[in-house]
Design brief:
The protein has 143 residues and is mainly alpha-helical. The chain is built from 8 helices and 3 strands, in the order H-H-H-E-H-H-E-E-H-H-H. It is globular.
């Protein structure tokens, strides 16, 4: 069975990436709706360095610990970069800059729509629609 485990883990990783879309979307939406990316970019430009998670929390009126946790999660998606010095500090990555409000080509609108509670609720009804053959959204969508 040479290669079996390598193929298995590669395939399992792909399945994990597909099924973990909900938390990735939640991270994106929260970063955008709370303005974290815009704040980090503005402060980093102003100070010419990384921005402390606690400062982001203070400026956005959010919980310090959960702000840090969210930013750490965002770093796993390469949206922000965590720095060793100062500890608990972040900058926006090139990928994360697509979330900036003032960019003409910003992905903000897409993220706010795709991550909306309304759209998420619709997708949660997919199984019901497939079982019954009836739309769960009226005529608004195919579903």
């Amino acid at each position: 069975m040479p290669g079996y485990y390598e193929e298995y883990f590669e395939d399992f990783h792909t399945i994990f990436n597909i099924c973990s879309g909900h938390w990735k979307t939640a991270i994106l939406r929260t970063l955008v709706s709370l303005g974290f990316i815009d704040i980090i970019e503005a402060k980093a430009t102003e100070t010419k360095g990384p921005v402390l998670a606690s400062e982001v929390a203070s400026l956005c009126h959010t919980d310090k610990d959960f702000t840090y946790r969210l930013l750490r999660a965002a770093s796993t998606l390469s949206l922000v970069k965590e720095h060793d010095y100062p500890q608990y500090s972040f900058t926006v990555t090139r990928l994360g800059s697509l979330l900036l409000k003032d960019r003409e080509d910003s992905a903000r609108g897409l993220i706010l729509w795709e991550g909306s509670k309304e759209l998420c609720h619709i997708w949660l009804e997919l199984e019901k629609a497939v079982k019954t053959g009836k739309k769960v959204t009226g005529d608004m969508f195919w579903l």
